[in-house]
Amino acid sequence: MGERRLLIVPSRGRGGRCTQGSGNHLVAPQSQAYAETMRRTSVYIAVAASIAGLAVAAFLYTRERDRKAAADGWLGREAAAVYWLKHLASAQSRVRTDRAIDADRDGIGEYATLLELKGAVGVRRGFTGPQGDRQAAADFSKVGDPLDLTTEDVSMYGLPGNVDATGVVTQGGYHYRAFLPDSGTSPGWTHEAGPAGVPGFAGGTSKVGIDAAERQWCAIAWPDSRGESGDRVYFVDETGVVLESENTVARWSGLAREPTPDCARAAAGAGDAPPSGGHVGRDGDRWTPWDSSRLRTRLREPRRP
Questions:
Q1: Is 48 within the bounds of a domain?
Q2: Are strands 233-237 and 243-245 parallel, antiparallel or unpaired?
Q3: In the β-sheet with 124-128, what is the strand arrangement from edge to edge?
Q4: How far apart are CA 178 and CA 167, in angstroms?
Q5: Contact 302, 70 (CB under 8 A)
Q6: 60 in a domain, yes or no?
Q7: Number of folded domains that form the chain
Q8: Residue 304 and residue 286: Cα distance in Å, rounded?
Q9: Residue 55: inside a domain, yes or no?
């Protein structure tokens, strides 16, 4: 049998302090084994805590990485929408300056539809009303030659996707639609409709107000599925300034909840004056000029519901 040893330790009084004259006590082997068990348990707990800490850190890192990846995705789609609207504004400006569309032949160019900008149809030549009449209208009942897409500034080959029968383009999680002034009472709007083989207009009188189309147009980009394919809505018009809204009030999303052409314009009473930004639109959301620096800020911030 092995030799049994006793451990002699100083006696401690209350509070664990050594007391004079208290003598020494013998510690049984069982107490020594208990102390060893407690020491090992402490080591095990420390190791487990370290492993748990590493697991939590890995989880947080993965979650942040996935959040940033998702943010990169929808922010990229939103940035692409802004880019295309800017490109569209440049093309519209060039078409009007070149008088590529002039249905009333008064020497003043008019803005185009998406189908016309893509060269998918001949430019509208259908004319109704006396020349110079404010109610003079144009449609696709007669068409001229398609736009010359060899001019880089006019080419809309970069237009994402095709214009569908309702006049909407869908690409990269966003829908796009362009509007021209309606020939009815201002500030009404109409938009292209029908396949490229049978182009037409929908909304209002389904005819373009020629004089107004020499001055105005607008286009909107909105998410196919708000909160998934993108959050914000973008608007551009003849000023070339792209406005954005957080889309937290109107919550425009998909073709079932499509924004109206006057959504970014100031509250009723402002007439058809182009919106300048920094105001609450008719859809209840606040519209501000798009700023690329906000993309970096939004990448670091949580998304709003």
A1: no
A2: antiparallel
A3: 124-128, 137-143, 208-209
A4: 8
A5: no
A6: no
A7: 1
A8: 15
A9: no
> d(Cα 67, Cα 72) in Å, to the nearest integer?
8
Rounded-to-integer distance, Cα 277 and Cα 182, Å: 24
Could you list the residue range(s) of the whole structural domain that residue 104 is in?
76-300
Determine, yes or no, domain membership for 44.
no
User: Which among 238, 225, 265 has a CA at the least distance from the CA of 110?
Assistant: 238
What phi and psi, each to the nearest 5 degrees, are found at residue 27? -100, 125
Q: Tokens 């107004």, residue?
A: 212
Pick from 63, 77, 69: which is nearest to 225 by CA? 77
> Tens place of pLDDT for every residue, the chain, 305 residues?
455 444 444 545 455 444 444 455 444 556 777 777 777 777 777 777 777 766 666 555 544 444 444 445 667 888 889 999 998 998 899 899 999 999 988 999 999 999 998 888 899 998 887 665 667 899 999 999 998 766 545 555 455 568 888 999 998 899 999 999 999 876 689 999 977 788 999 988 899 999 999 999 999 999 999 988 889 999 999 999 999 999 999 999 999 999 999 999 887 554 455 666 678 999 999 999 998 777 666 655 555 55
- Beta strands 218-223 and 243-245 are unpaired
For 222, the 3-state DSSP assignment is strand
